[in-house]
Amino acid sequence: MNLESANRDPDARCPCLSGLQFGECCGPVLDGTRPTPTAEALMRSRFTAFAVGDRDHVLRSWHPRTRPADLALDDEMRWYRLDVESTSGGTPFDTDGEVTFTAHYRIGSEKGSLHERSRFTKYRGQWVYVDGVIA
């Protein structure tokens, strides 16, 4: 079983480390059957998309104004841990929000992390990623 299919098991722990199973957390968001209620939930689903190699969700959840024309995911990079450090706005009642997080990855035996403050907005009633500042 490859990493993508293992991480898409609805009974497996969700890669975003919310504590929920994939089928009740990011799974329905990635397959398009449930919208995200908050900016943090969208950020978690985007992390999960990177972890399982779902570039379509990454692109679909990106604001059209800032979305790249194409996106290549590194098959060697394994995203394995997400630490959400803070959120500002981004509730179901807001139109904008920020999420600061650290995402941890491995490439072979090397470990690394990405620390980012991401901006989100509601576009056509759905949360979308706008851009981020990498620290």
Quick take:
The chain is an alpha+beta fold and 135 residues long. It is 21% helix and 36% strand. It has helices spanning 3-7, 27-30, 39-52, 55-60; strands at residues 77-89, 96-107, 110-123, 126-134.
Describe the structure.
Strand 2 and strand 3 form a beta hairpin. With 135 residues, the chain is an alpha+beta fold. The protein has one domain (3-134): Nuclear Transport Factor 2, Chain: A, CATH 3.10.450. It is globular, with a radius of gyration of 14 Å. Strands 1-2-3-4 form a 4-stranded antiparallel sheet, covered by helices on one side. It has helices at 3-7, 27-30, 39-52, 55-60, and strands at residues 77-89, 96-107, 110-123, 126-134. It has 4 helices and 4 strands; from the N terminus they run H-H-H-H-E-E-E-E. 21% of the residues lie in helices and 36% in strands. It starts with a helix and ends with a strand.
Descriptive tags:
135 residues, UPF0225 protein GP2_011_00920, NTF2-like_dom_sf, globular, YchJ-like, SEC_C_motif, disordered N terminus
Which sequence of SSEs, written as H and E, runs from N to C? HHHHEEEE
Instruction: Give the strand content.
Output: 35-45%
Low-confidence stretches: 1-6
Mean of residue pLDDT values: 93
- Taken from the alpha-carbon principal axes, the silhouette is globular
Specify the structural class: alpha+beta
State the end-to-end distance: 35 Å
Q: Which percent bin holds the helix content?
A: 10-25%
Largest sheet: 4 strands, antiparallel
What integer value in Å does the Rg equal? Answer: 14 Å
Q: For the largest beta sheet, what order do the strands appear in spatially?
A: 1-2-3-4
Query: What's the total number of strands?
Result: 4
* CATH architecture heading: Roll
Q: Domain count, please report it.
A: 1
CATH class: Alpha Beta
How many helices does DSSP assign? Answer: 4
Query: What fold name goes in the CATH topology slot?
Result: Nuclear Transport Factor 2, Chain: A
Family: Belongs to the UPF0225 family.
Protein name: UPF0225 protein GP2_011_00920
Domain YchJ-like middle NTF2-like: 38-132
Organism: Gordonia paraffinivorans NBRC 108238
